[in-house]
Structure prediction request, 320 residues.
Amino acid sequence: MVHLQKLHERYAEQGLLVYAIAVHPDRAEAIRLTRELGIGYPVLWGTGSELVERYAYG
Amino acid sequence: MIADRERDGFRPRSAVRHAAAVLGALVLLPAPVHAQQAPAPAARGEVRPGERLDRLELPALGGGQLVWEPAAGTLVLPGQPPQQPRAVLLHVFQPDCPKCQELARALELLRAEERAGLVVFGIAYRADAAAAAAFARASGAHYPIALGTGSEWARRWSGGDPLYLAGPDGAIAYAQVGFRHDDPALWREAVRAVLAGRAPARRTAERERVLAGDPLPEIALPALEGQALLRLRRLPDGTLALLGAGPAPRRARASVGFFSRY
Prediction:
């Protein structure tokens, strides 16, 4: 997440959209970690979603 | 995109092609890209069914050592005499991985069936003993768990938090990453086959993957914070837009998305 934050800071104005889909057992903890890491790009809540079930199996 | 393109080539760490599988990266350019996929080069830690797992000797959760000599077919679980299993189901996991916890629950159910000749154990990595113990409690896993954090074995074999089924010689007969609820049926068939001295009909589980040239999957999820529903859409003019993040669509020429377990 942190490395992509750098990518976001460098290229957002040139048209790159960086986003994360959070997969974590605890949403409150995911929020805390996201804040702690200083993430400025959009973070979506993916836990339990069909998208995560299909693609985020690792 | 169904992953049976690689049915016989399980490669948790083959760079970009597995980013979608392991890291879960979704990369989209404004216009579809239909680049010819060159064969992925061998990557560090790449494993395939048929490969033999390395010898391991790791501390076990709860004390003692877990020692497996695949070439000799000998396994020593803590507090038990050496044995020569005909099949070994081995789950390599990070304790904070939600899918790993689901997999462990299913694995425990299979272990409880007590198939003669089958041994189930896990290897935790990137975690300390307390985290591994918490994982075992949360998932109800009663099978032995070794602590592989920092080990060469985990460095080489942990890509994608895999589940391996090995035969008596330590050769991988079946392997998969992640977990879906229909996977245990594959495991049972594979275990039955290996215990009977046969190759399983399936050597891995099919997975959907996003590869270069594929359309971006439908993305409409709530924001992590707040109540907004965020949608990523391709607009008629060919640009991308993130909708819901503000009063106006946030347009982009390209996007990089990924699943984060933190």
Q: What stands out?
A: The first strand of chain B starts at residue 26 and ends at 28. Confidence is low (pLDDT under 50) at residues 1-24, 28-46 of chain B.
